[in-house]
Amino acid sequence: MIYRLAFLFARVWWRVGRIPHEGALVATYVGDDVLLLRASYRRSWNFPGGGVQHLEKPEQAARREVQEEIGLLVPTLKPKGNIVGYWEGRRDSVHYFELRLDQLPVLHIDHREIVEARLVSPEDLSHFKLTGATAAYFKAQKEAA
User: Fold this and answer.
1) What pLDDT score was predicted for residue 89?
2) Residue pair 33/143 in contact by the 8 Å Cβ criterion
3) CATH code matching the domain that covers 2-144, chosen among 3.40.50.1000, 3.90.79.10, 2.60.40.3250, 1.20.58.1000
4) Percentage of the chain with pLDDT > 70?
């Protein structure tokens, strides 16, 4: 409940303050399937990731967020580009990274911020409500193919 209230207030603050944001998301693949997470404060699904902190590089932020959200230590990630959009009441510049795994490791989610994790096949993606930034990634991948 605290995360939902904080997120609601943050969205109002972003909209009123017009504060730009920089984020980093990690598309984590096991074969063709992709890992999606659902946060307690959202109804939509997202990649592991979050905000880039002051003086932090986007890849550092992505690795930090993966560790915080699912307990996975990642030495390096493959950069997959940047998309600027307007999502959740703010202008957001999102850096995308890709991680390919042979098998899904044991995930360590806290059930406070992250409440659910699923490995989703490409065929089943259309059944999931995705965050704007995650949907933008899939749209860009489709257009590039």
Assistant:
1) 76
2) no
3) 3.90.79.10
4) 87
